[in-house]
């Protein structure tokens, strides 16, 4: 987890060369739709990227788990629109991903991929592979592979849109944040017995909220859920109590309203953490943890927020006596 700032620097320096063929493909194919496909963490990465490509490139961009392509293809693989498929997998060996690659290739669709293993089966089957090898990791739980593949794919979208915001500064900010917040997070975990984690994020940050939710399940075996912030009012809010810890990945676009929701959660005695890229005043919120990451884009703030959640997962796992390198019932590569 703590290797991320250094790894991101390397990843960013490789981006221009690494994304070139993919960027050319997007320009030349002139596709109407792009589908980002993944499983688990890589599916949540797909969700975040579908939003980024939709917003920055005005393409119709979708995220699907690989199993949808395998079992419900008639709902997706039809119509005259020109489709591109971008496969996401750290290992490139997840059975559903390899099977989805096979199916899409057999049907003649253009298939590209991002992975941390250049020689994997999925990579070999794809027309174009972006390999972020330096971000590969031994751990079962995906941490730096998620953030590094995200950085690379956002770079590609921003290059196409003609405005690159992802640069080495994000690595410096992450290093500084880790230093600044480790003690606070560890003290909070020691002093607050949390039964349930809730992560809220809108737009691109919904994928990050889902990924944070998964990290807490995998690393700490805690109940953990994720919602679009304003969906939380439509039912889930009835479960708020002092044992529920709600994290908001605040977006620039809806920060004011999202903070209002957090206020309601505090009034119901829930505990709160806010990771906010904008400087909205929240002195009256009294969140237990509040990380101001101002002057950052939603994408950059999401990255910092995720590192904070990953660290929190570590501390809680340690406190519960769990070995995060060997999470219950999980394997590094899911093979059917
Ligand atoms: C994705 C995944 C992870 C999960 C575990 C096993 O794999 O299912 O979401 O946490 O680490 O792998 P991949 O297709 O990205 O290699």
Description:
It is a single chain. The chain has helices at 4-18, 20-29, 41-57, 66-71, 73-76, 95-106, 121-125, 144-161, 169-191, 205-220, 255-267, 298-319, and strands spanning 33-38, 60-65, 83-89, 111-115, 128-131, 196-201, 223-227, 244-250, 271-276, 289-292. Helix 3 (41-57) packs antiparallel against helix 10. It has 12 helices and 10 strands. The strands form 2 sheets. Strands 2-1-3-4-5 form a 5-stranded parallel β-sheet, sandwiched between helices. Strands 7-6-8-9-10 form a 5-stranded parallel β-sheet, sandwiched between helices. It has 2 domains: 4-161, 3-Layer(aba) Sandwich (Rossmann fold), CATH 3.40.50.10490; 169-319, Rossmann fold (3-Layer(aba) Sandwich), CATH 3.40.50.10490. With 336 residues, the chain is of the alpha/beta class. Helix 3 (41-57) links the parallel strand 1 (33-38) and strand 2. Bound molecules: 1-O-phosphono-beta-D-fructopyranose. 1-O-phosphono-beta-D-fructopyranose is lined by residues 39-42, 89-91, 94, 97, 140-142, 218, 330, 332-334. 1-O-phosphono-beta-D-fructopyranose binds at residues 39-42, 89-91, 94, 97, 140-142, 218, 330, 332-334.
């Amino acid at each position: 987890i703590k290797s991320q700032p250094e790894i991101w620097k390397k990843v960013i320096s490789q981006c221009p060369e690494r994304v070139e063929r993919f960027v050319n493909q997007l320009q030349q194919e002139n596709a109407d739709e792009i589908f980002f496909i993944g499983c688990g963490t890589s599916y949540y990465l797909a969700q975040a990227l579908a939003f980024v490509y939709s917003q920055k490139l005005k393409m119709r961009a979708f995220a699907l788990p690989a199993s949808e392509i395998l079992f419900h293809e008639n709902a997706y693989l039809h119509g005259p629109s020109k489709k591109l498929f971008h496969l996401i997998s750290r290992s490139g060996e997840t059975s559903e991903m390899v099977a989805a690659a096979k199916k899409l290739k057999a049907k003649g669709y253009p298939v590209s991929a991002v992975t941390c293993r250049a020689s994997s089966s999925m990579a070999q089957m794809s027309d174009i592979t972006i390999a972020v090898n330096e971000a590969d990791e031994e751990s079962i739980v995906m941490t730096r592979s998620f953030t590094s593949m995200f950085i690379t794919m956002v770079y590609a979208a921003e290059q196409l849109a003609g405005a690159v915001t992802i640069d080495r500064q994000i690595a410096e900010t992450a290093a500084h944040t880790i230093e600044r917040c480790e003690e606070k997070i560890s003290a909070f975990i020691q002093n607050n017995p949390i039964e349930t984690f809730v992560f809220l994020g809108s737009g691109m940050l919904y994928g990050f909220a889902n990924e944070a939710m998964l990290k807490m399940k995998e690393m700490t075996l805690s109940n953990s859920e994720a919602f679009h912030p304003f969906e939380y009012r439509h039912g889930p809010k009835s479960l708020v109590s002092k044992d529920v810890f709600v994290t908001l990945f605040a977006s620039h676009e809806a920060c004011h309203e999202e903070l209002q929701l957090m206020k309601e959660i505090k009034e119901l005695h829930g505990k709160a953490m806010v990771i906010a890229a904008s400087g909205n005043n929240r002195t009256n919120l009294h969140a237990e943890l509040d990380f101001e990451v101002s002057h950052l884009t939603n994408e950059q703030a999401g990255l910092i927020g995720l590192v904070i959640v990953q660290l929190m997962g570590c501390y809680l796992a340690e406190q519960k006596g769990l070995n995060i390198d060997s999470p219950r019932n999980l394997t590094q590569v899911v093979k059917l």
